[in-house]
Write a sequence for this structure.
């Protein structure tokens, strides 16, 4: 009788233990689901917004402090962790940011595209190249196999005089498959620019010719031809440079800045060739006068635009 009671007690104990284990696992799983939901979709919060403003002002230490407070206050969304990583990168503490970036990559990798767009707009607004590099560093840390993320970073590396880094970025991105044709063209054009600045003109010409084999939009076509002309001048192939320059000029539609830049390149090629029989000196004189005219018109247009903006601002005030 005593043996049966002991067996019954053991069975009841096992059932209770098993039930508690199931309840515990259920609570743990639900906690993880809720935590991930909050991290991914939770409200950004006031502390987060303040941190973003401080980051934009270049007050990186203060932005980091706000990001920490945002996380502790359980404004626990992926954006807060990314804000902390961004501030850490700006402070040169990249290794400390890796855990946050891994979390973002796991729960909300699409934030990498937001960083990429910010980098693009920063370039358009003549922002600091080092800030563009930082934004794309973060994007690439989250999603390293997106070729277009390397375009802006390579462009900015070239601006910073870090030509080999720009070349390496483009080379790696071009190895990622699949790759969209327009992205490949941009990477080839960026690499050609870096090669030109590094005075590796033969490689710049190869990349330019490779890019020209694809279907290019007008602006990209101009950029690639511009790089080709620079490479040809560097190689002292002046007649070919003049021909490529004339081809580019034919593509220009009412863009005085492009015409000025291309005319300057053509002048450089003509000066390099300096063929008396072809009257290069006369052509140079004409082009210089044309550049003066275009620069005067461009300056007048820019002045008028500034006055219009000023008048519109005064009306709003």
């Amino acid at each position: 009788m005593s043996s049966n009671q002991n067996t019954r007690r053991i069975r009841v104990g096992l059932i209770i233990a098993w039930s508690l284990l199931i309840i515990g696992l259920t609570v743990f799983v639900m906690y993880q689901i809720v935590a991930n939901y909050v991290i991914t979709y939770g409200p950004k919060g006031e502390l987060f917004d303040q941190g973003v403003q401080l980051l934009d002002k270049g007050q990186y230490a203060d932005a980091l402090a706000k990001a920490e407070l945002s996380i502790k206050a359980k404004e626990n969304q992926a954006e807060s962790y990314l804000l902390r990583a961004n501030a850490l990168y700006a402070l040169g503490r990249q290794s400390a940011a890796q855990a946050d970036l891994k979390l973002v990559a796991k729960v909300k990798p699409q934030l990498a595209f937001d960083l990429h767009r910010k980098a693009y707009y920063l370039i358009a607004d003549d922002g600091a190249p080092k800030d563009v590099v930082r934004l794309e560093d973060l994007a690439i840390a989250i999603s390293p196999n997106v070729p277009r993320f390397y375009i802006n970073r390579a462009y900015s590396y070239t601006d910073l005089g870090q030509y080999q880094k720009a070349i390496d970025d483009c080379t790696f991105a071009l190895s990622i498959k699949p790759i969209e044709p327009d992205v490949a063209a941009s990477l080839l054009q960026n690499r050609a620019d870096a090669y030109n600045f590094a005075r590796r003109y033969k490689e710049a010409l190869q990349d330019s010719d490779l890019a020209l084999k694809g279907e290019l939009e007008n602006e990209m076509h101009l950029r690639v031809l511009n790089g080709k002309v620079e490479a040809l001048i560097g190689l002292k192939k002046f007649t070919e440079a003049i021909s490529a320059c004339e081809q580019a000029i034919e593509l220009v539609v009412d863009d005085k800045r492009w015409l000025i830049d291309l005319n300057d390149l053509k002048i450089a090629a003509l000066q390099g060739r300096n063929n008396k029989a072809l009257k290069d000196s006369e052509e140079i004189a004409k082009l210089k006068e044309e550049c003066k005219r275009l620069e005067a018109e461009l300056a007048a247009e820019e002045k008028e635009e500034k006055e219009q903006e000023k008048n519109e601002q005064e009306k709003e005030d």
